Amino acid sequence: MTTERDPGPRLSARLTYLLKRALVDLEDLHAEHLAPVGVSGRELAVLLLLDGINPESQQQVAGRLRVDRTTMVALLDGLEAKGLVARHADAGDRRRNVVELTGDGRAALTRAVSASDEAERQFLAELDDAESAQLRTLLTRLTQDRSKP
Questions:
Q1: Fewest CB atoms within 10 Å of the CB: 5, 53, 84, 107?
Q2: What does the CA dihedral 133, 25, 101, 66 come to, rounded to 10 degrees?
Q3: 146 vs 125, which has greater pLDDT?
Q4: For all residues of the chain together, what is the average pLDDT?
């Protein structure tokens, strides 16, 4: 007997469907765990990218995260309004604006990574440590940049 939530065997066997369901479930867990920190999963990605690198331009950050310019501006506007990032002119090239984490941004990042780790632990609870590591390895192989030799 099928229910309203049961997509049926043909759809539930499709990789696209399985990956999308996994993503939605993981995003929901992240939203729940990151809410007390005051950042979203997308904002966490920006903070992680900016941590420990030389200041980069908005355009470089957008390229590395593979998001369009408009989306990047909105993300950085939100993070800047929260006091987590700062944008300023590059000392070496005044035409270029760079983005850096603030002290509050570093503190929020520490809390957000801890929250994200807990969301991932909950998501992967049905797998043992070896299976979790294997899943990460396989997904890394599937998502590696194929444009490089």
A1: 5
A2: 80
A3: 125
A4: 90
